[in-house]
Amino acid sequence: MAATREIVASYRNPAAVIARLLGQGTREDRNLIYLMVACLIFFVAQTPRLARESFIDGTELNMLLGASLMAWLFVAPLMLYGLAGVTFVILKILRGNPTGYATRLALFWALLASSPVLLLHGLTAGFVGPGIELQIVGLIWFCIFSWFWISGLRVAYRQSK
Asked: In the chain, which residue ranges form alpha helices assigned H by DSSP?
């Protein structure tokens, strides 16, 4: 199934999507693509906010975009791999036996699947600016991301038993 269809299906049943993705076998290349596409979408989501800040503060937009691009495409993937590693260790301590691949897939897929809501967050930051609206959209994104990630981790934990 195409990734876009899987993203839509994640909003109905994220555990079934993760189980389906895990059933396709260990594909670390696919994991990396999910992560990099999610980070690219996160970068794109930042551009309206950065354009707003550049206009208001009078700073150079290219400098802000370059720093954001560097952060999202080079630094964030390393940090997210570290977060997946810490999650793997925590699941091991909790007497689970998930694979590192499954814990990485759960995190990276949760980021990619929740990215459409993050695009809305970026638009809200760019057009509305700071305020309750931005906080509400951010909270909605965080809840959806947490739902997807926890559902994926539960599938990874259950498959290990």
From this structure: 3-10, 14-23, 28-57, 61-70, 76-93, 100-127, 132-159
Rounded Cα distance between 30 and 122, Å, is 26
What was the pLDDT predicted at 148? 94
Q: pLDDT digits over 11-52, tens only?
A: 999 998 898 888 888 888 889 999 999 999 999 999 999 999
Stated pTM of the model = 0.89
Burial 80-103 (b: 16+ CB within 10 A, else e): bbeebeebbeebeeeebebebbbb
Q: What are phi and psi of 58, to 5 degrees?
A: 80, 20
Residue type for 32, please? L
Task: Determine contact, residues 22/155, Cβ cutoff 8 Å.
Answer: yes
To the nearest whole number, what is the mean pLDDT of the chain? 89
- Report how far residue 152's alpha carbon sits from residue 159's, in angstroms, rounded to the nearest whole number: 11
> For residue 88, what are its two tokens?
């793997």
